[in-house]
Amino acid sequence: MAITAQMVKELREKTGVGMMDCKTALQENDGDIEAAIDWLRTKGLAKAAKKAGRVAAEGLIGIAGGDSKAAIVELNAETDFVARNDQFQALGSAIAAAALGTDGTLAAVTAAELPGTGKSVETAITDAISTIGENMALRRADVLSVESGAVASYIHSAVAPGLGKIGVIVALESAGDNAKLSALGRQIAMHIAAASPLAVDVADLDAQTIERERAVFAEQARESGKPENIIDKMVEGRLRKFYEESVLLKQTFVIDGENTVEAVLKAAEADIGAPVAIAGFIAYRLGEGIEREQSDFAAEVAAAVGH
Questions:
Q1: Of 12-21, 24-33, 106-115, 176-185, minimum mean pLDDT range
Q2: Which domain holds residue 193?
Q3: What is the pTM for the complete model shown?
C-alpha cells in the first residue's frame, strides 16, 4: 500500500513521533493507523495508552439536572466568538434543560420541545443559525439518573452556570444523606474531569481495550529480550498499572493525592450513613475527536498574490 504524506502527518499528530519513524510504522503495518500506533508503542516510541482526538470544534458543553437526574449536551459552533455569544449560551442551557426530560438519545433530544418556545430543539438550532449566521450542530447528549442517591455534576472552564469546555455528570447510588452524597459526587466529578478514566471498574472496561493493551505489553517485553516465562508476569504487572491509570475506582483521588477513589468512597460511607456506589459517569470534552481542517497560511497568502 502506498503511504501518503497525509497518513504520515496524521500518525505524527496522534503520537508525537518523528516523521521517518511514522513512515516506517505505516509501511510495516500496510497503512493501518491504529496498528501503526501499537507498533510504535512496542518499540517504545509512543505512549498513547489512551488516544484523544485533537480538540478542534468550538461551542459549549451544557449540563442541567436535579438531585437524582442530570443531562449533558454538546452544542458546537464554528468559532469561539459565537460560543461567547449570549444567544448561543442561552440556547445551550435550554437544550440541556430539554434533554433532562428525555432518555438522552440524540434523536429524542433533537425532537424535544425547547422550554417556553413551542419549538423543537432542531428548529431552534436552525433558527439560531439563520440569526447568528454561523453553522451549529447538537453533536451528542446523555442522561444519567438514580432511583436512590444523587447525580452530581461539574463544569470546568465555565463561561456561565452549567456551561463550559469540559462537563462531567456522575451518578452515586446510596440511601444515605443526600446533601453529603451530592458534595462527594461533585468532588468525584472534578476528579473525572482531571483524570479521564475509561470506566468505573475493571469489569466495565471494553474487552478489546484490555486485549490490545495486553498484546502491546507482551510485545514490549519480547522486544526487551525477556524469556517467555517472565513475560506473563511482566504483562500482568503492566496491566495493573494500566488499571490504576484508567479505571476510576483504582485511580488516585486528585483531591487528596493519596487514596484511591474506591478508598475515598468507603471512608465516606460512615459520614453519609449508608454504602455508596458509583452507578456511572459521562464526561464530555469540547470537540474531542473532531479535527479542524488545517490550512497553510503562508501558502494561502502566496496563492492570493499569484506566486
A1: 12-21
A2: 58-199+261-285
A3: 0.76
